[in-house]
Write a structure and sequence with these properties.
Blueprint (H helix, E strand, L loop, with lengths): L1 H19 L10 E4 L5 H12 L3 E6 L2 H8 L7 E4 L5 H15 L6 E4 L15 H29 L2 E5 L12 H20 L5 E7 L9 H14 L2 H7 L1 H17 L5 H12 L6 E4 L1 H11 L3 H11 L7
Parallel strand pairs: 1-2, 1-4, 2-3, 4-5, 5-6, 6-7
Helix pairs in contact: 2-10, 4-5, 5-6, 7-9
Length: 316
C-alpha cells in the first residue's frame, strides 16, 4: 500500500514539474505592468523581465526611482509615475498603458506596491493609521486592478497580486496583516470570476526579505511614534515593558530577513510566463516550512507558538 501511495505522489510531482516547465510563446510581444518599481521586488522584477525580452511598463512613485530604473534597463522598458492611492493618477496611468499596448492588450498586471507602517499594537493606533496602509496595500490593489482589467481581459493575460505570509498568519497588529488578508480574498474572488475569460490570477506570499518595508529602523520609529500618540490610560494599561518588547521584535527582523529577492521575483516571473502558473507561490524557506504549515494549524496552537517566540509583556 505504501509503495502504491509513494508511486502516486511521485507521479503527481513529476506531472506537475513537467507542466510548470512549459513556457508561454512570443514573450517578446507581451506587455507587463508592474506597480512599486522604485525599489525592492518591483524594481528587480522589472529588470528581470526586461532581460527576458518582455515589454515592461514600470510604475514608480517618484521620478527619481523611474530615472534610476531606466538607467539600468533597455529601451524597451518604459516608466510612468503612479500613486496607487489617487484615482486621477490611476486613470492617467491606465490611459498611458492603453496607448502603448493598443490592440494587444496587457498580458500581465503585477500589483506589487505596498507599505508596512504604521505598525504597532492595535490599541496604540488610530483609524487613520489603519487607513494609511489599507489605502495602498488593499484599496490601491483593487482600484488599479479594476482600472486595468479590460486590457488584461483583452490579452487573456495574468494578474499577479503580492500578498504575504502575513496574509495567512497574523503575527502583529496594525493594518498590514489586515490588508494582506484582504488581498488574498480579493484575489480568490477575482480568479474565479475571470477564469471564464481565460485570465489567470496568482498570489505571491513572500516570507521575510530585506526591502524598504521591512526596515527595522523605520518600524521601530513608527512604534515609538504610535506609543507617544496614545493616551495616558493606554500607556498605563500596557506599560513601558510592552514598548520595549515591541521594539525588540522590530530589531530582530533584521536577522529574519533574507537578502535574495530573486526567490520572490522568480515566482512572479513564473506566474507571468508559465503556461500553467500556480494559484499561490510561497517564496522563501520560512514561508514554506514555518508560516504555511502554521496557517493550517488550529488557532490555539498558533497562539501558543506566537506567545512562545514573542511573549506578551506583563500588563499592569
Amino acid at each position: 500500500m505504501w509503495l502504491y501511495l509513494a508511486t502516486l505522489v511521485g507521479l503527481y510531482y513529476l506531472i506537475r514539474w513537467y507542466r510548470e516547465r512549459q513556457v508561454v510563446s512570443h514573450l517578446q510581444d507581451k506587455y507587463v505592468f508592474i506597480t512599486g518599481c522604485d525599489s525592492g521586488f518591483g524594481n528587480l522584477l522589472a529588470r528581470q523581465l526586461d532581460l527576458r525580452g518582455l515589454r515592461v511598463l514600470a510604475a514608480c512613485l517618484t521620478e527619481k526611482g523611474a530615472e534610476q530604473l531606466r538607467g539600468q534597463t533597455s529601451d524597451r522598458l518604459e516608466t510612468v509615475i503612479l500613486d496607487v492611492t489617487k484615482t486621477e493618477s490611476i486613470v492617467a496611468a491606465t490611459q498611458w498603458a492603453k496607448e502603448r499596448t493598443g490592440d494587444r492588450g496587457l498580458w500581465g498586471l503585477v500589483n506589487n506596491a505596498g507599505i508596512s507602517v504604521p505598525t504597532a499594537l492595535n490599541e496604540w493606533l488610530t483609524k487613520q493609521d489603519f487607513m494609511k496602509i489599507l489605502d495602498v496595500n488593499l484599496l490601491g490593489v483593487i482600484e488599479v486592478t479594476l482600472s486595468l482589467l479590460p486590457l488584461v481581459r483583452k490579452a487573456r493575460g495574468r494578474v499577479v497580486n503580492v500578498s504575504s505570509v502575513l496574509g495567512r498568519v497574523v503575527l502583529y497588529g496594525g493594518g498590514y496583516c489586515i490588508s494582506k488578508y484582504g488581498v488574498e480574498a480579493f484575489s480568490d474572488s477575482l480568479r474565479r470570476e475571470l477564469s471564464h475569460f481565460g485570465v489567470k490570477v496568482a498570489i505571491i506570499e513572500p516570507g521575510y526579505f530585506k526591502t524598504s518595508i521591512s526596515s527595522p529602523e523605520v518600524i521601530s520609529r513608527t512604534i515609538k511614534e504610535s506609543w507617544d500618540q496614545t493616551s495616558p490610560e493606554v500607556k498605563e494599561a500596557y506599560g513601558e515593558e510592552s514598548l520595549a518588547s515591541s521594539l525588540k521584535v522590530a530589531v530582530s527582523l533584521e536577522k529574519m530577513c533574507k537578502s535574495d529577492l530573486s526567490l520572490v521575483t522568480n515566482s512572479m516571473e513564473h506566474a507571468l510566463t508559465a503556461c500553467h502558473p500556480r494559484t499561490r507561490y510561497s517564496a522563501g524557506w520560512d514561508a514554506k516550512l514555518i508560516y504555511l504549515p502554521m496557517s493550517y494549524m488550529p488557532a490555539f496552537l498558533v497562539d501558543a507558538i506566537v506567545y512562545f517566540f514573542n511573549p506578551p509583556a506583563k500588563t499592569h
